[in-house]
Amino acid sequence: xxxxxxxxxxxxxxxxxxxxxxxxxxxxxxxxxxxxxxxxxxxxxxxxxxxxxxxxxxxxxxxxxxxxxxxxxxxxxxxxxxxxxxxxxxxxxxxxxxxxxxxxxxxxxxxxxxxxxxxxxxxxxxxxxxxxxxxxxxxxxxxxxxxxxxxxxxxxxxxxxxxxxxxxxxxxxxxxxxxxxxxxxxxxxxxxxxxxxxxxxx
Length: 202
Hints:
The chain has 202 residues and is α/β, with parallel strands linked by helices. The protein is built from 5 helices and 6 strands. It folds into 2 domains: 1-57, no CATH class; 71-193, Rossmann fold. It has helices at residues 36-43, 80-92, 114-123, 151-157, 172-185; strands at 71-76, 99-105, 127-133, 147-148, 165-169, 192-193. A 6-stranded parallel β-sheet has the order 4-3-2-1-5-6, with helices on both faces. The mean pLDDT is 88.
């Protein structure tokens, strides 16, 4: 996407919703200290501004229509956006696979849609959610438990997940660490999917 406040500075964003009949999309944007584009999106973009959308890229964080396999979804930060879209699509289906979501951040405040995600899990028995924070520990949330550690550590602490299709979304460093740890834990490589086009640019 390119915004008028930052011409020729394109950034990747993932839709955070399943397709809608009106064609609208939700985008999750984290303002990064010193980030030229993220800061402009959060502080300067206004209703009525015209943004440019480039051709869609990435096809790995999608559901396979004919595959009934249970799912493991791992999301760090705003990497939760495409995972949210996947969950919305799953909720539309007549039959859903068992789905485990790990959503992580450095601190509790980074889990910006945790209340909405928990509400979704309360409505759907096929969905289980485990929030993870690197700092703050289990007492950081009085309403429900949090796991403490990195996503790579916590996810593999529950096993290899070898019987599940795995979607991983987040920063390049988080994806690398999580996939590497899962492979060591015994997750088959052909079970793990992530989009490789993520950029480090803020």
